[in-house]
Specification:
alpha/beta; Urease, subunit C, domain 1; 2 domains; GlcNAc_6-P_deAcase; hydrolase; N-acetylglucosamine-6-phosphate deacetylase
């Protein structure tokens, strides 16, 4: 990693929830630094000046739910370990092209043999130009989920937790004991036997527990939050539709009497809709797919107005991301991608994912909700970092944060990625890709 000290000038920096001018960004050794020590202790100035030419400089995007891309599925355990590792690198490098500098590779419901082979390859690792976007640990979606809301998942591998946490260890193998080093997020259905009681044990291991692919009622959802669940997986999809007498999992966004968290870590910041205006919001974060297919723009708007600081933009992209329409695989099942980029289980109308990219999600979120540029960017940067409890190093341009950032052009009214840096190094963008 370069010893050189870099200084970005002529930038509009996203700092402390504002886009500010007449400020500089300094970085060295892949970290954002404060220049004061350079001047007074080391008597050094910048070795290289980077002219942002008036563009917005923001943290790199974070995608906490992505199943694959470029013809590669993270749940595919066929072939050698070397081949799987090469495939992971292919996706990680490709994501940088869209400004995504960190991600949680997502594995859908699978048999234990799949987890034992794939999960060791999805452990946390730093990002680089050579290796691609940083891996933040896997997102395990299932198999402790509902048959009723299975979506494209293979129900033959579904499980319950009647024997407690040992059932989870049996399903995932030794990687689960590594906690967030291997598994950052786990999606479960809280109504499945034994699952809610296991949430505290999972949280103790450093795993973020999300609720999804569930038919739970509002009382079950709120109980899961009290047990430590802090996220909802792809809001509105694979869950009970909102009903005024029992709003189900969606209704948690309107909860007013959940216990107030004692710490900000892992929880949304307060907003005008929070139960407390000056304490962390006890309502969970929610992943939301802003492709215009999975969730109607009006529904995105309703969620945003209900709980603005809980929004986490995700792609839920599958192996077909970056490829044309056609037939691909997801967790061993055939899926079809149509002209809009939506993906369905082959021969059905069951949505299975999409091919949207994270920069598209940012643009769509701003367009659907009429939120500010800052809010749109933070839904793909600060919010996912807070969800994972890593905002000390990801999701901001604060001193000591990782030097993962993007240059954004907003001259057309939409945010477009123009330059991408990961661990302090700039990547080469493919012409016309973004």
């Amino acid at each position: 990693m370069s010893e050189k000290i870099y200084k970005i000038v002529n930038a509009r920096l996203l700092l402390n929830h504002e886009i500010v001018e007449n400020e500089y960004l300094w970085f060295q050794h892949g970290k954002i630094i404060h220049p004061q020590n350079l001047f007074f202790d080391a008597h050094r100035d910048a070795d290289e000046i980077i002219d942002a030419k008036g563009l917005i400089v923001a943290p790199g995007f974070i995608d906490t739910q992505i199943n694959g891309g470029y013809g590669i599925d993270f749940a595919d355990n066929e072939g050698s370990v070397e081949k799987i590792q090469q495939d992971i690198n292919t996706v990680a490098k490709g994501l940088l092209q869209y400004g995504c500098t960190a991600f949680c590779p997502t594995v859908v419901s699978s048999a234990p043999a799949v987890y034992s082979k794939v999960l060791p390859l999805l452990n946390q690792r730093k990002g680089s130009v050579q290796g691609g976007a940083e891996i933040l640990g896997a997102h395990i979606e299932g198999p402790f989920i509902s048959v009723e809301k299975k979506g494209a998942h293979d129900q033959t591998v579904f499980r319950n937790a009647k024997n407690g946490i040992s059932d989870f260890d049996d399903a995932y193998g030794p990687e689960l004991k590594k906690g967030s080093k291997a598994i950052s997020i786990m999606t479960v259905a809280p109504e499945i036997d034994g699952v809610a009681d296991c949430i505290p044990d999972l949280v103790k291991r450093g795993i973020t527990v999300a609720m999804g692919h569930t038919a739970c009622r509002i009382a079950q959802a709120e109980e899961a939050v009290k047990q430590g669940a802090t996220s909802i997986t792809h809001l509105f999809n694979a869950m009970q539709a909102f009903h005024h007498r029992d709003p189900g999992l969606v209704g948690v966004l309107g909860a007013a009497d959940l216990p107030i968290p004692s710490s900000q870590i892992g929880h949304p910041a307060s907003s005008l809709t929070s139960p407390s205006r000056n304490k962390p919001d006890p309502r969970p974060f929610y992943g939301i797919i802003c492709d215009g297919v999975h969730v109607h723009p009006n529904s995105v708007r309703i969620a945003y107005y209900s709980h603005p600081n809980g929004a986490v933009l995700v792609t839920d992209a599958l192996s077909a991301m970056g490829l044309p329409k056609g037939t691909y695989t997801l967790g061993g099942r055939e899926v079809e991608v149509d002209e809009s980029g939506a993906c369905y289980v082959k021969g059905t109308s069951t949505l299975a994912g999409c091919t949207v990219t994270i920069d598209d999600c940012v643009r769509n979120f701003q367009r659907f909700t009429n939120c500010s540029q800052v809010e749109a960017i933070e839904a793909a940067t600060l919010h996912p970092a807070r969800l994972l409890g890593i905002e000390d190093r990801k999701g901001t341009l604060n001193v000591n944060a990782d030097a993962d950032f993007v240059f954004l052009d907003d001259s057309t009214g939409e945010l477009r990625v123009k330059r991408v840096f990961v661990a302090g190094e700039e990547i080469a963008l493919v012409n016309g890709l973004v």
